[in-house]
């Protein structure tokens, strides 16, 4: 039998949220800069003497009313400007990892955006040292396997991406892969074909945001030109039946972020999210938090709110958690261990 498949009995609606919270899971799509809570933004601003154009935490939170991806990115990059020292990057990552552990996340593959920091004069070493130290502590103190994926900002040039890769190469053993994020429309994956080809030669895992706001064509080129192993978001794929078939056949994981999609107006309400359609199409869809400090919830909230709004049940819960382990970049034996732990939690709820 396939390691990741299991038929599970139904669970009563009033017990489903507890099951969703208790089940072990992997988070595969989370930008560490997007976990910076307003309280920590203010604390770091004070510590580093950085001025921010909001009077207090409440005023900053009120500004989190987004209409699309770009309206979010503008405020997200501004928030990251309080990060200056190695300890700041550690504190941010540690705060996320504590929350992840509380949500029973047993593996976290965390994105970071070095260009947001290096262009302000913060060194690559400072960024990676702080994040990596938090990952090491997460394993010993929280039991969370945490890894880093370095993202290139797609609104910047190919030349900038190559320079970023060059700066990161001395720290090659501290990140497991590369990704592509930021403003999607007008910046198709093929803009970074040569950078991704080089990263592939270096043996790095490859992922890319595609089909968040952009068309199915961007998902095709992420697969065929960049040769990525996972698609981040990918929710626009349901518009293209041939693409759905390809994603299902090749078991390409989609790292879906429901509360992000809601906040960035990709779907008008959570009840209209297409997660069920992706699962019914046989895709390796997963649930993730994207930028939890900005979108109103970490992993468990993404699960409980999406299930409540769409009527998904225990079988979908199994599939989504199992998919998160299948889609992770760890070895087969570790994946089997995670699925065994998942099975033990489902047995308790049977
Ligand atoms: N950077 C942080 N969050 C992002 C998202 N949802 N899409 C693209 N780039 C991002
Ligand atoms: Zn993202």
Q: How is this structure best described in words?
A:
- By secondary structure, this protein is α/β, with parallel strands linked by helices.
- It has a single domain (16-36, 86-349), classed as TIM Barrel, CATH 3.20.20.140.
- Helices cover 49% and strands 13% of the residues.
- It has helices at 16-22, 38-48, 57-62, 69-79, 86-102, 114-118, 124-142, 158-168, 193-201, 216-224, 241-249, 258-263, 275-280, 292-295, 299-310, 314-326, 332-349, and strands at residues 25-31, 105-112, 145-153, 177-181, 205-210, 230-233, 254-256, 285-287.
- The chain has an eight-stranded parallel sheet.
- Helix 8 links the parallel strand 3 (145-153) and strand 4.
- Helix 1 packs antiparallel against helix 15 (299-310), helix 5 (86-102) packs parallel to helix 7 (124-142) and helix 16 runs antiparallel to helix 17 (332-349).
- The two termini are 20 Å apart.
What structural keywords apply?
350 residues; alpha/beta; TIM Barrel; eight-stranded parallel sheet; 8 strands; globular; binds adenine; binds zinc ion
Task: Describe the structure in brief.
49% of the residues lie in helices and 13% in strands.
CATH architecture: Alpha-Beta Barrel
Structural class: alpha/beta
Figure out the total of helices.
17
How many separate domains make up the residues?
1
How many distinct beta strands?
8
Enumerate the strands of the largest sheet in spatial order, edge to edge or round the barrel: 1-2-3-4-5-6-7-8
List all distinct small molecules, including ions and cofactors, that are bound in this structure.
adenine, zinc ion
Mean pLDDT: 98
For this structure, what is the CATH class?
A: Alpha Beta
Q: Return residue spans where pLDDT drops below 50 for at least 5 consecutive residues.
A: none
Rounded Rg: 19 Å
